Amino acid sequence: MTAFEPTPRNKVRRLPSRAAYDDKTIYAIIDAAPLCHVGFVSDGQPFVIPTQHARVGSTLYFHGSPGSRLMRAIESGQALCVSFALLDGLVAARSIFHHSVNYRSAVVFGSGRKVEGEEQILAALRAFAEHVLPGRWDEARPPSPAELRATTVAALEIESASAKQRSGPPGDDPADLELPVWSGVIPLRTAAGPLESDSDQPVPPSVQALLKQQSA
Amino acid sequence: MTAFEPTPRNKVRRLPSRAAYDDKTIYAIIDAAPLCHVGFVSDGQPFVIPTQHARVGSTLYFHGSPGSRLMRAIESGQALCVSFALLDGLVAARSIFHHSVNYRSAVVFGSGRKVEGEEQILAALRAFAEHVLPGRWDEARPPSPAELRATTVAALEIESASAKQRSGPPGDDPADLELPVWSGVIPLRTAAGPLESDSDQPVPPSVQALLKQQSA
Prior knowledge:
Two copies of one chain form a homodimer.
Chain A: E1 19-20, H1 23-32, E2 36-42, E3 45-51, E4 54-56, E5 59-64, H2 69-75, E6 79-92, E7 100-114, H3 118-132, H4 145-149, E8 152-166, E9 184-192, E10 196-197, H5 205-214
Antiparallel strand pairs in A: 1-8, 2-3, 2-6, 4-5, 5-8, 6-7, 6-9, 7-8
């Protein structure tokens, strides 16, 4: 395990007890998040665009259409910030003030580059497919040369990052514990299915595994 | 229904058939999203911070600790961008190239301000509580004067916005339809429970309604 050094850019200032800077914690959140939100600056205006990602080591990959604003921003090499968040539960306290949510979040800083070369692009596309549906790459038809040319892949090297998370029960004030108000956590999770098949082929192992995992 | 005029700032450039600019579509996505990602610029560096929100009309509300970087950025009146995304399903095509996701997303532009006055702050706090757990406000102990002083509420007036969404089956190439590869949509949804009670009080209507809705 290594850690990203807390600097003014990535330091969590509020509730520092919820903060983490080690790559293991941060990468687990990135990998568990199906989507991320990429922030960049254009003419002084911030833009935040939701997109899919994949991580290989300390590199984040993004893909899109050539010429999209997001892909051009990543390829330009400018400073970026990428945000990830997973909502794990609603925390209902006896007081409105102590209502909260259980969550895992990560904020990542770095700058981007265009990924070039057929082999590197293929590796990134495999990472995208495997991120959301492990095993899918080997089940489906691989990209053709024309499809590869129609896809832009960009990468961001993670320079700095932090995680912030909350778990556990509500933090009610001792004076409120006798109030006749229910309190507790309402856990939230992602459930998958029922399938909407577009094919009479058997449901493949990748999809079966996801259904099994997400309905557990 | 009114619409936000497409301008260079909010115009969806890629796959414009997936774009919408009407407030009804955009507000429904904002209201369905439990979290958002707020982008701002500090010393030329973009920051994107995940947080909770509530919407009242064309106003977005945020809350946090006084002095947090996010709250200070919103209160400063600088240009902001807020991103919302809901993942509705994985779209598994016969080809890797046509793999996609079904989603609803919105990107909002505006500038922020501090919310002042006890009545206005209380109204915003009620909107936060009702956003994630409708009915909860009347079940729990309301904020005390000291708690109100410990909470900062900021608002953003939505000046410009766009939505982008995808739904429906995979868009396989006709030439791929005979491949022996399963294709279809794996719907994803948020499931709630089982409850982790921190109280021997009965489960209140707000929580019962959420469980009923999210397990359906």
